[in-house]
Design brief:
Chain lengths: 395, 352
Amino acid sequence: MTEKKTPQLDELEKGPWPSFVSEIKRAAVKSEAAKDLLNLLERSYEDKKGHWKHGGIVGVKGYGGGVIGRYTDLPGEFPHVAEFHTMRLNQPSGWFYTTDKLRQICDIWEKHGSGLTNFHGSTGDIILLGTKTEHLQPAFDEYSDAGFDLGGSGSDLRTPSCCVGPGRCEHACYDTLDMCYDITNEFQDELHRPMWPYKFKIKMSGCANDCVASIARADCSVIGTWRDTLTIDQDAIKAYAAEGLDIQGMVCDKCPTRALKYDAAKQELHVIPEDCSRCMHCINVLPKAVQPGQEKGATILLGGKSTIVQSAFLAWVIVPFMKMEAPYTEFKDLMRRIWEWWDENGKTRERVGELIYRVGMGRFLREVGLAPVPQMVFRPRANPYVFWPQDEIVK
Amino acid sequence: MSRIDAGPPNYREMLPPIILQNYGKWQYHELPQPGVLKHVSENGSELYSVRVGSPRLVSIDFIREICDLADTYCDGYLRFTSRNNIEFLVGDPVKVAPLLQALEAKGLPVGGTGNALSNIVHTQGWVHCHTPATDASGIVKSVMDDLFEHFGHMDLPAKLKIAMACCLNMCGAVHCSDIAILGVHRTPPRVNDEIIQKGTEIPTLVGACPTGAIRPNPKTKSVVVNEERCMYCGNCYTMSPGMQILDEKNDGVAILVGGKVSNARTAPSFSRLVIPFMPNNPPRWPEVTEAVHHIVDVWMKYARRGERVGEWIERIGWEKFFGLTGLPFSDKLIDDFIFSKETFRTTAAFKY
């Protein structure tokens, strides 16, 4: 077969940013599928449209998800991507790797796939792009022997993910890496066998900087926080002042609750504890001097999702503070109660946030067994249309 | 022998000794130079992380190459970030400079820390998705080439997070980014009765439409679309291949700005639509790269130190944002979906 030309994609090999086209070409040296992918993509650039069909059902024994079927709509012209399925491998917590493990992933994918990957997918998995149906089971078997397992897909628990946490961050208010590993193992059945109205994502951030975007990207967002007061090291404040940092301007004036007072003469920073909302700003600017309090845990938020169908939602507070320590029993119990309620009441393809929006927070809190507290809302409702429970009505 | 439900590898086996020794004991971090983080622990240990941009779509030979580097300079340990950067974990300070030289020699960009542009999180696009309105990797490459200087220099008013999603499903969760690049459809799905008759659950398909634009058609055992009500979200196409929504003449790209996920200073917030449509113009989408570049330039010129894009716009007011950028305002930017009212200005106080 003559080599096809790819002038549009070749253009994307120029410029300083590393090129995905060069990566596809590297894989194409060894893989006919990668070569066909390159040519198919050039066709998309010519046609200004995608050339992939809806996924068929493919998978490996014992699993209901983790593999996404993919077929081109031009199989005659691009036979090596007639089947070009994705495998999702569950990443290690915090995306830490030894080179040995990464090389194992590569070696197996050289044998069974196109040699193309995403490090990583949007949910957090290692994405192995492009293999044929007949290779799925053998590839899985080898990955399993290497200590890897599939991630989630479809209407199941999607692969949980977390920030770098105490592995390399001074802000972590709980052990995100351990919790992610623990709950992923606890909920293997929910992860691997779709049985819910729709997907459910859990993401864990160690502090309110939320480096894994949990509040926007997860149905359940676990954000590290503290309940007492932040601690301030006045010697370190003096050192920042000596370096010329504008503590009043860059820290106090930007504090959203005006909870910080800087005494420029004494070079001391003080917090009004009851006014602090724990947003992380001062800690971010002054990491050597200001630190979270001692009584640490996490805020649980629920309902975050992207635009489809009822608009994007940011997750909202359902538990202001929960101690977050192994074996995470309180959290796991809460998840199970929420899933049961959602499963019972949710319509097909209705995320838990959309269900709560449809039937009301009040009913959700009553039926899941959570006590309403003011931290759950910015402000109370402005209308008087309360759905009164019958047992509170005089008969 | 493969095992079912064995779970992911234990992260503890992936951590370098310096992290195991200082786990949970980190005290603070500094940015000695763009792309380099220095974490210091209670007992004085120092860990250098060198952050490197990647195209995310990478070959196994690329992974092997970064493994070689990690073997030479990091005793075989590395990690990836939530924005698809690679982080080399260097326990020996002497090895930082040679690693940086080796990365430069390979053309791998170091940066993405502090007040810089980080890598663009993105979706599959034409590479591997069945509902894309545009490509993702090509636009990301073009925008990163165009804004490259801001990846390696911490010269912005605040951090800058750009995200790209190739359709409204937003697998890239662009809805809370400083700048969001989003593939959009603009025409209703074309119903293929034959495909729908074959294998589509009609009640589920009808239920998938957020505006009730799809009705069952008992005569054809298929559905009809009330085109006036369709907002081209493509949710029906995800439910059934008989609802083709790809339209090479009308699909394209929208730009949203001003979102964030961090709680620092201001609450997490959504990005807002400021350019409703630009054409698909591969391979480099010049209209898109110019628009993003322009928004970044105006933000750099007018924002105060420490202000994210959305914080700057909320301070000056959106009416001033349109004035300063010169972006045309139109009725397309005024929400008419179900939560629209909260965006209407219910005060007589505003600027010109």
